[in-house]
């Protein structure tokens, strides 16, 4: 381990920088990098190379080739470039390749070289051609900035939501700026450009001149500028070989350096890690790489090959034809542990663990030393943290072993940090693998989050790995496995060479009933690819019928949609389909469809009842549903029609319908009503007063109350009103009239079919005891006691009850006996009872 | 007198959360429409809303005036100077309701307070409609918006549907050409806690919509409500149900749960069992006259949304009074589940106790008196007020009941239930119709006769119908057609043809898709088999001597000891067995062989405490008698029942739902 820090290079007193190999590149590049347009996505993303660009005056007959590789150089895609000349390439945050053409058209390709879409940067750009272009990233997404041939800038801060912004003119600008970059401050994109010794800042509306504070004098031109990954810092390289480093707001200088190289650098990028005080810039020339910072000396590397720098969150990736390296500031934890002769607790713990493995008692000494200082917790944490920053698994392991060793001597050390680090490292090592080729560092991984990482794996079609990671990290299925499977399925349906059956089966086998997988989404994708049959097959696997409906409708499978909607039990959905169908089919077909779906039919009827009465009638007609048709006309006879003729006509139609429905009862009743209506009309004409719309009963009552007894009787005969009803009716009406004479006459007209007790009751109700008594005597023996009690003749009631020897009646009478007045009666009953018992 | 629960009876969950949830949601919706606005409220939503939010809460959220959507035909626009149709009654402009005070108490004063015409608005306000998703409401809104358009007024409109939006409504808005002018929202307020153990969805139309029209829209609402309950109060480990609607609701609900199961998983259940029951499984109970106090009050005065309007005859003053009836009313709480015959005795006892407590004053010294006045007097006065109200109610009930020969009526009902002297009962009903005693009562008796007798014999069927039409008008031809479709009033058909249809239907029912669509047929083929069920489940208790209503032995006490409510008995049996096992014959008789189910998440972790909390869901409404009966059962067995119903119903409401009336 002595040589472990061999690749550490100090910069000033406090920081070390190290460069280590990520991959030896697998690609077999024929061209030099300098001959290609190169774009590499941050966060260990893919690399795009457009060989044979137009700027070389080569034979135009050869079509250039666009190649996409993973960070380890594995080819992902290769395609012949058939569009116009490309000025610049760049990757968006979603890992889509943006190719800016000379005419301002931006073509968007997927990771696998699949064409996605294109958009134009506007007419002005088209006319003046693109001189230079940059793809930049903001919190909204990825933006494109373009410098046109007229030295004007146009930019869009988010290509996902394209809004072109033309930046203001720089006054008196004659030539192209020597260098420029996009800045992002307060969520607004600016452009900083250098023309000769002057710096201009362009925002929405204004162009202002800016001067970096503390800039060394004698600058006649800026050759290169670099803005840090987070847009916080800015570095300027002047023609005097002087480098100014400061904040991006140009308010503060951090440091400066004079490298004495006047040649313009090929690339200059920031190399700093989040939350570190150290600031450094990596400058690359053809054969030389220099790390400069706040130190009198710089770190120098020799470049054997043509190389390309990719700024990252916490360092710089450098790749060439043969090798891919990572250059970064050594993190504090690693530095503390591995610095030569470090006495940091982590270093001691690592040492202790090594001794322990050697079974040496030194282990105990070291451990004691840490414990005496009370730094064991810190030591363990340091080891865990340092492990995260190590690229080599053996180093990760040894640090984690040390941490785990130290943990044993601690009470209640929360294990989460350790466990999580183990998990994270396992994931990181898996994706850093050569075949996968995503060289994420721990900090980048944390910044990116696992969800985004999974998305990127899915984007690379690394479904099995993604699923393994989900399962390993025990992510909830909906967020993890099912989402990935759904993506896989969406990819699967695009494989046109496989038959519908096979695709559907394969998808169903894999997905099964994994919760959270929406078969309808996959089907929608299949439909999008023009595979309708496959979409229908896939929809059959969708357990929620409701989800199937919208797509089925879109695919014009309305009838199937209807039955699915009904199956779902969601009536709203059924209704949606219904109205769809109504517009789609002609009326006859629509009704026929309804006929086979009673639930839909009843729903539609409900709707028609309120909105389209005529349609309702048609529906019943079509179905030969005469019963309902009859009911419909009955309702119409009093709700819709006002004129008597119209009402009778409606009733006639109803009656006909009822006959057809073999509902003779209803038909007869309807005919009776027609007769009654006509009659009521006549009565109104002849007698005046209100008769229409009275029930038969009420009509007769009204007649009696009006003194038209003859007519009443005639009506009762005509409509065959049963005797009982007639008696009740007359009785009530006459009592209401208090026509006692007529009532008595009536009572004697023949034997009452309802007995005479009602007569007594009704008289008593009108408080006519005198009349009541008349009838009480005529009440049959069964109800006599009751009648007598009603008229208040307790004594006689008692006599009758005693005579009838009815126990219940006796009790009844007794309960009516009130104290003083009926004392004698009560005694009598008691006696009778006693006698009865004796017998 | 009121029976205390067993000491080990489980605690009821706190349902006030549901109110808070609904209120917060409403406020959120109102805030979506910033600025001053007028609020139009559908009449049916007023009482429920009243229980959720007071006028001052609405005013705090910039509701200016309240109007009632009354669905009167809207007059032509030239007649409306205010821009609102005549049907809209302003509620909150009159001086009495400027501030604060719960608005229901003032509703009476506001009612009929027509907005003075001609006062043109200076500022055009935004309009907000709070309505049930009904087509007629959409037409009302459309008329209003179109009138505005004619008058050249532009403003914002917002329609808040409660409890959910239906596509059909949006469709109507579109057809009326105003879809672009209004914005729609949903107020998912589907569960109103009326009492500590009673949740109501306040959807009385559920009964007619589902059981008559075959409209299944509300089933989704039920499923949503159940889902809400299970997310708030934990999963239900055991689930039973009977009836087609119950089955569908259960399925939909399960689907909802599956879609987002990660949330409820691992939660401790609070409610151990849930029982879903369709109203059409047991029409008989709902059709009987209620004799338990709470039921009687409902039958007599109509309890609406947990409160009742006691008229002058009860309050013995010239004003009527709106009274909340729930467990907080101490007097009511003690008598609500009592048979009416006990109530008077109890109340007079209570009055004597109260007097005694008042009388204690006499011997007091100053200090004690001070204590008495500051602490007890208020409570006593409150109790006194309630006591006199309930005594008034009792007297009023007595008066009404004796007038109509209540004893005779009850006797007939019992005869029908027990199945003797059917001829006498039939002629009693006939007389009832002939005398035009009450159209609703007559219908009820006819239905009761039909269901208990497996349909009327053809001769009676015709003659009773004829009599009824003669008494109450021909439009009831439609009522009879409705009743027939719902299986409430049918004609006895020769035995074999019926079974043929029955078997055909049940074959259809097994097919999943067909199962959902056969309502129309099934009701035709349905035989009530009441007599056989009654025997099988022992619904008519055999009593020697007098049934002691003071100390009841079984649930039959809610019907004077004559009949154990069928619905409650089924629930009891299933809970006892923890399944439908052994009830096959009963299910067959109920025509529900395919429609009974058990389910739920079998969870061994369920604490035994929760297993004795049972949620009973009545789809299509339940009666207070059933509630009382199950409360009784709970006390006997150490359970606590919680009731969820689409609406509290009674025989009159059922009959009215089936009746066709002239508009």
TrEMBL record, chain A:
Gene3D superfamilies: Vps16, C-terminal region. It is a peripheral membrane protein. One of its GO terms (cellular component) is HOPS complex. Keywords: Coiled coil, Endosome, Lysosome, Membrane, Protein transport, Transport. Residues 517-835 form the Vps16 C-terminal domain. It is found in: Late endosome membrane; Lysosome membrane. One of its GO terms (biological process) is endosomal transport. GO terms for molecular function: actin binding. The keyword Ribonucleoprotein does not apply. Residues 349-376 form a coiled coil. InterPro entries: VPS16, Vps16_C, Vps16_C_sf, Vps16_N. Plays a role in vesicle-mediated protein trafficking to lysosomal compartments including the endocytic membrane transport and autophagic pathways. Believed to act as a core component of the putative HOPS and CORVET endosomal tethering complexes. Core component of at least two putative endosomal tethering complexes, the homotypic fusion and vacuole protein sorting (HOPS) complex and the class C core vacuole/endosome tethering (CORVET) complex. Their common core is composed of the class C Vps proteins VPS11, VPS16, VPS18 and VPS33A, which in HOPS further associates with VPS39 and VPS41 and in CORVET with VPS8 and TGFBRAP1. Interacts with RAB5C. Interacts with STX17, MON1B. Associates with adapter protein complex 3 (AP-3) and clathrin:AP-3 complexes. This is Vacuolar protein sorting-associated protein 16 homolog. It comes from Myotis myotis.
């Amino acid at each position: 381990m002595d040589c472990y820090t061999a690749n550490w290079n100090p910069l000033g007193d406090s920081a070390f920088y190290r460069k280590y190999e990520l991959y030896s590149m697998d690609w077999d590049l024929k061209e030099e990098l300098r001959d290609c347009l190169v774009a590499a996505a941050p966060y260990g993303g893919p690399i795009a190379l457009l060989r044979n660009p137009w700027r070389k005056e080569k034979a135009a007959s050869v079509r250039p080739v666009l190649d996409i590789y993973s960070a380890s150089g594995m080819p992902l895609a290769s395609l012949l470039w058939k569009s116009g000349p490309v000025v610049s390439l760049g990757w968006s945050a979603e890992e889509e390749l943006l190719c800016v053409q000379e005419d301002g058209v931006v073509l968007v390709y997927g990771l696998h070289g699949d064409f996605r879409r294109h958009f134009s940067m506007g007419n002005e750009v088209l006319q003046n051609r693109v001189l230079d272009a940059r793809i930049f990233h903001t919190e909204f997404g990825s933006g494109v900035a373009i410098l046109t041939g007229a030295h004007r800038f146009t930019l869009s801060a988010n290509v996902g939501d394209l809004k072109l912004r033309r930046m203001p003119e720089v006054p008196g600008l004659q030539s192209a700026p020597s260098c420029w970059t996009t800045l992002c401050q307060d969520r607004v994109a600016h452009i900083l450009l250098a023309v000769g010794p002057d710096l201009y800042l362009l925002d929405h509306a204004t162009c202002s001149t800016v001067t970096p504070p503390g800039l060394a004098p004698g600058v006649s031109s800026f050759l290169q500028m670099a803005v840090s990954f987070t847009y916080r810092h800015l570095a300027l390289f002047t023609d005097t070989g002087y480098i100014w480093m400061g904040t991006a707001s140009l308010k503060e200088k951090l440091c400066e350096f004079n490298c004495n190289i006047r040649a313009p650098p090929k690339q200059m990028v920031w190399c700093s890690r989040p939350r570190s005080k150290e600031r450094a810039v990596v400058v690359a020339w053809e054969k030389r790489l220099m790390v400069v910072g706040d130190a009198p000396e710089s770190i120098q590397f020799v470049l054997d090959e043509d190389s390309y720098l990719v700024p990252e969150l916490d360092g710089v990736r450098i790749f060439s034809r043969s090798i891919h390296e990572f250059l970064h500031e050594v993190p504090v934890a690693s530095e503390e542990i591995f610095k030569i002769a470090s006495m940091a607790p982590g270093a001691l713990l690592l040492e202790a663990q090594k001794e322990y493995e050697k079974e040496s008692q030194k282990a105990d000494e070291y451990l004691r030393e840490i414990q005496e200082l009370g730094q064991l917790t810190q030591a363990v944490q340091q080891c865990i943290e340092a492990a995260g920053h190590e690229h080599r698994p053996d180093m990760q392991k040894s640090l984690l072993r040390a941490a785990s060793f130290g943990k044993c001597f601690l009470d209640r050390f929360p294990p989460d940090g350790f466990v999580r680090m183990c998990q994270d490292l396992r994931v990181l090592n898996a994706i850093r693998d050569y075949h996968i080729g995503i060289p994420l560092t721990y900090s980048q991984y944390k910044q990116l989050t696992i969800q985004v990482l999974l998305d990127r794996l899915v984007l690379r079609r690394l479904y099995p790995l993604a699923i393994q990671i989900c399962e390993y990290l025990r992510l909830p299925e909906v967020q993890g496995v099912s989402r990935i499977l759904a993506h896989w399925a969406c990819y699967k349906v695009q494989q046109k060479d496989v038959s519908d059956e096979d695709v559907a089966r394969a998808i169903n086998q894999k997905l099964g009933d994994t919760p959270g997988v929406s078969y309808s989404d996959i089907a929608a994708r299949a439909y999008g690819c023009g595979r309708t049959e496959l979409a229908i097959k896939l929809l059959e696997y969708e357990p929620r019928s409701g989800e199937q409906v919208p797509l089925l409708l879109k695919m014009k499978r309305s009838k199937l949609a209807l039955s699915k909607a009904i199956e779902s039990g969601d009536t709203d959905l059924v209704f949606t389909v219904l109205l769809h169908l109504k517009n789609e089919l002609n009326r006859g077909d629509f009704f026929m469809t309804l006929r086979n779906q009673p639930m839909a039919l009843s729903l539609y009827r409900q709707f028609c009842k309120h909105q389209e009465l005529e349609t309702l009638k048609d529906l019943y007609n079509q179905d030969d549903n005469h019963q309902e048709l009859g009911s419909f006309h009955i309702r119409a006879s009093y709700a819709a029609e006002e004129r008597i003729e119209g009402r009778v006509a409606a009733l006639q139609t109803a009656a006909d319908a009822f006959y057809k429905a073999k509902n003779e009862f209803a038909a007869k009743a309807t005919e009776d009503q027609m007769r009654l209506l006509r009659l009521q009309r006549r009565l109104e004409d002849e007698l005046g007063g209100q008769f229409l719309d009275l029930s038969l009963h009420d009509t007769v009552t009204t007649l009696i109350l009006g003194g038209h007894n003859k007519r009443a009787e005639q009506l009762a005969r005509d409509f065959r009103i049963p005797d009982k009803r007639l008696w009740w009716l007359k009785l009530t009406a006459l009592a209401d009239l208090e026509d006692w004479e007529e009532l008595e006459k009536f009572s004697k007209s023949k034997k009452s079919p309802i007995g005479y007790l009602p007569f007594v009751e009704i008289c008593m109700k009108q408080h006519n005891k005198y009349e009541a008594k008349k009838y009480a005597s005529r009440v049959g023996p069964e109800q006599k006691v009751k009648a007598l009690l009603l008229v208040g003749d307790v004594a006689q009631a008692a006599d009758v009850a005693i005579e009838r020897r009815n126990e219940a009646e006796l009790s009844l009478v007794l309960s009516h006996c009130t104290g003083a007045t009926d004392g004698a009666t009560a005694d009598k009953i008691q006696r009778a009872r006693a006698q009865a018992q004796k017998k | 007198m009121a029976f205390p629960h067993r000491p080990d009876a489980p605690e009821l969950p706190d349902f006030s959360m549901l109110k808070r949830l609904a209120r917060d949601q409403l406020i959120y919706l109102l805030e979506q429409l910033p600025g001053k606005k007028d609020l139009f409220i559908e009449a049916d939503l007023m009482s429920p809303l009243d229980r959720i939010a007071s006028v001052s809460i609405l005013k705090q959220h910039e509701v200016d005036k309240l109007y009632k959507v009354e669905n009167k035909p809207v007059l032509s626009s030239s007649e409306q100077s205010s821009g609102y149709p005549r049907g809209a009654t302003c509620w909150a402009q009159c001086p009495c309701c400027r501030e604060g005070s719960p608005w229901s108490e003032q509703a009476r004063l506001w009612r009929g307070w027509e907005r003075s015409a001609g006062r043109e608005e200076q500022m055009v306000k935004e309009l907000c409609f709070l309505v049930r998703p009904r087509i007629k409401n959409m037409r009302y809104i459309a008329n209003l918006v179109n009138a505005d358009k004619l008058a050249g007024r532009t403003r914002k409109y917002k329609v808040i549907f409660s409890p959910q939006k239906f596509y059909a409504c949006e469709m109507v808005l579109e057809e009326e050409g105003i879809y672009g002018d209004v914005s729609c929202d949903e107020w998912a307020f589907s569960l109103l806690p009326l009492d500590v153990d009673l949740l109501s969805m306040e959807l009385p139309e559920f009964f007619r919509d589902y059981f008559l029209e075959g409209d299944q829209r509300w089933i989704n609402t039920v499923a949503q409500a159940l889902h809400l309950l299970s997310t708030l109060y934990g999963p239900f480990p055991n689930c039973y149900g009977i009836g087609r609607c119950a089955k569908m609701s259960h399925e939909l609900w399960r689907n909802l749960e599956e879609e987002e199961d990660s949330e409820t998983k691992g939660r401790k259940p609070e409610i151990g069992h849930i029982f879903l029951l369709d109203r059409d499984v047991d029409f008989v109970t709902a059709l009987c006259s209620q004799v338990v106090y709470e039921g009687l009050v409902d039958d007599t005065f109509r309890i609406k949304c947990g409160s009742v309007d006691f008229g002058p005859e009860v309050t013995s003053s010239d004003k009527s009074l709106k009274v909340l009836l729930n467990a907080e009313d101490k007097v009511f709480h003690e008598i609500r589940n009592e048979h009416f015959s006990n109530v008077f005795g109890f109340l007079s006892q209570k009055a004597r106790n109260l007097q005694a407590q008042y009388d204690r004053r006499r011997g007091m010294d100053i200090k004690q008196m001070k204590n008495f006045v500051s602490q007890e007097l208020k409570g006593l006065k409150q109790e006194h007020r309630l006591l006199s109200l309930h005594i008034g109610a009792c007297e009023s009930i007595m008066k009404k009941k004796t007038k109509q020969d209540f004893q005779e009526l009850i006797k007939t009902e019992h005869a029908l239930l027990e199945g003797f002297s059917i001829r006498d009962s039939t002629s009693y009903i006939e007389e009832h119709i002939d005398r035009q005693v009450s159209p609703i009562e007559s219908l009820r008796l006819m239905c009761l006769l039909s269901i208990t007798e497996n349909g009327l014999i053809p001769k009676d069927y015709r003659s009773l119908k004829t009599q009824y039409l003669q008494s109450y008008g021909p439009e009831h031809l439609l009522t009879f057609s409705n009743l027939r479709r719902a299986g409430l009033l049918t004609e006895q058909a020769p035995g074999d043809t019926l079974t043929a249809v029955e078997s055909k239907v049940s074959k259809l029912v097994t097919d999943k898709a067909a199962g959902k669509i056969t309502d129309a047929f099934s009701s035709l083929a349905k035989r009530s088999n009441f007599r056989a069920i009654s025997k099988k489940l022992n619904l008519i208790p055999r009593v020697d001597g007098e049934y002691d209503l003071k100390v009841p032995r079984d649930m039959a006490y809610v019907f004077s000891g004559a009949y154990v409510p069928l619905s409650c008995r089924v629930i009891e049996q299933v809970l006892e067995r923890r399944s439908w096992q052994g009830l096959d014959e009963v299910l067959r008789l109920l025509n529900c062989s395919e429609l009974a189910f058990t389910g739920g998440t079998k969870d061994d972790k369920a604490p035994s405490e929760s297993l004795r909390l049972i949620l009973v869901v009545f789809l299509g409404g339940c009666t207070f008698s059933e509630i009382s009966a199950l409360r009784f059962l709970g006390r006997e067995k150490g359970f606590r029942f919680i009731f969820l119903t689409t609406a509290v119903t009674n025989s009159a409401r059922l009959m009215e739902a089936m009746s066709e009336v002239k508009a």
